[in-house]
Amino acid sequence: MPQTPGRPARAGLAALALGAAAMALGYSLRRRQRRTPRVAPQRLHAALPPRDPKAVAYTRTRYLTALAGEGLALGFLVAASRQDRPVRLRRWAERHAPNPFLRDALFGGSLLTLSTAALLPYSFVSGHLVERAFGLSRQSAVAWLADAAKGYAVSLALGAPTTAGLYAFIRRSPERWWLAAGGASALLAVVLTNLAPLLIDPLFHRYTPLHDEPLRRRLEELACRAGLPVLGVFEADYSRKTTKANAYLTGIANTRRIVLTDTLLGRRAAPAEPGQPEPEPVVYSHAEIASVLAHELGHHHFGHIWKGILLGTVGTLGGFALADGVLRRTGALPGYAGKGDVATLPALSLFLSLVSLAAAPAGAALSRAWERQCDRYALAMTNDPEAFIGVMRKLARQNLADPCPPAWLEALLYDHPSIRNRILMALEWPQTGGPPTDAAAPADRYRE
Ligand SMILES: [Zn+2]
């Protein structure tokens, strides 16, 4: 039988241990990453894009603002859980919605609204002004605010009923709630991942099947060779909002698809805002785009979305199990009606935020490992390291990525290997004796 975790002190220690383990993992992976290159330093130097001071400044600004954002979000939760504030908010919700489910949904929705409002100035600076200052945003302030309002509406529609469901589980089964809630969160993750490409993504961008016929044929041939022929390839009109390029994988089962941004395809869906300088579109060759697609196919081949959902569920179960002690202690405070009182939500959110922050370096390290796996897969599928290196150089320029970030920053926060390490892998590719065993499968299957 699973054990109900003990005292809050033990939970705190466990969170600290988790953080320490995450740091250790991050550093060990960094050591492995910064091993001696198997190519001549001059070759690596010649392949790397020049280190643009603007890109270095942008990378630093982004990570500093992200750090500030974490601090502000935690500060909000500390302030919201202090004194009798949560109890007063719950009493207010009770007056407007006597039904327990609606009361808890109103409480959750109100907490989300307060936090969105409190963090709005920060979000505007980091999400709009910084991007604008570096010439990466093509959006007006009004358009940015409209997107932020849509994001808030989606969070509210999902967050309010989720809060009510969670507290219904806690009241129904005070000892084993975390098992049921963890299971429900897994189910929710599967449903949301499946529906996001149909219901949520189109709120922010327009998705159309890839227009470019010769490119589409080339990509379909590649997908067929990878054993994933039914996969749709879509382009999205990111150029309305940004000059940055991207490609990603989304959906599961019948909604799985690969998305290439129109900025990667050298297109502009709308003219620039008046007075906004317009950088030249970066042009990627078909071979380079095929290399990007092959990387994304790798995520499908290795089942990274399913593995991500599975690991997320394990993390949620662990976080909930640890949070049980926090709920018990907070629920016993004067004015609170026990563990199942929704007034414990700010304390619960604060604790879960700290746990996920402590686990973030481990998550980033795992993500980098998966990205490296897909880079190797792309090289095996295309056998074109030059195209791969070309993409990396162009992406660094277009997205203002620092190709050589400080090693500690990469180890702790980067969810992709740095441009330097990705280029190094491609340079070493012909010397590693061809495709590694984990990437050999799709080509073999095709040959059969
Ligand atoms: Zn990837």
Q: Overview of this structure, please?
A:
The protein has 448 residues and is mostly helical. Helices cover 67% and strands 4% of the residues. It has 15 helices and four strands. It has helices at 8-33, 41-47, 53-81, 85-96, 100-133, 141-172, 177-199, 213-225, 286-301, 304-331, 345-382, 385-398, 407-413, 419-428, 437-447; strands spanning 207-209, 232-236, 247-250, 257-261. A four-stranded mixed sheet has the order 1-2-4-3. The protein starts with 7 loop residues before the first helix and ends with a helix. Residues 1-9 and 435-448 have low confidence and may be disordered. Zinc ion binds next to α9 and α11.
Offer a few descriptive terms:
single chain, 448 residues, mainly alpha, four-stranded mixed sheet, 4 strands, globular, disordered C terminus, binds zinc ion
Task: Write a brief caption for the model.
This protein has 448 residues and is mainly alpha-helical.
What's the arrangement of secondary structure elements?
Layout: H1 8-33, H2 41-47, H3 53-81, H4 85-96, H5 100-133, H6 141-172, H7 177-199, E1 207-209, H8 213-225, E2 232-236, E3 247-250, E4 257-261, H9 286-301, H10 304-331, H11 345-382, H12 385-398, H13 407-413, H14 419-428, H15 437-447
Parallel strand pairs: 2-4
Antiparallel strand pairs: 1-2, 3-4
Zinc ion (ZN) is lined by residues 295, 299, 371, 374.
End-to-end Cα distance, whole Å, is: 47 Å
Number of helices: 15
* Structural class computed from helices and strand pairing: mainly alpha
Beta-strand percentage range: under 5%
The biggest beta sheet, please?
Answer: 4 strands, mixed
The largest sheet has its strands arranged as 1-2-4-3
List low-pLDDT spans.
1-9, 435-448
- Cofactors and ligands present? zinc ion
Helix content: 55-70%
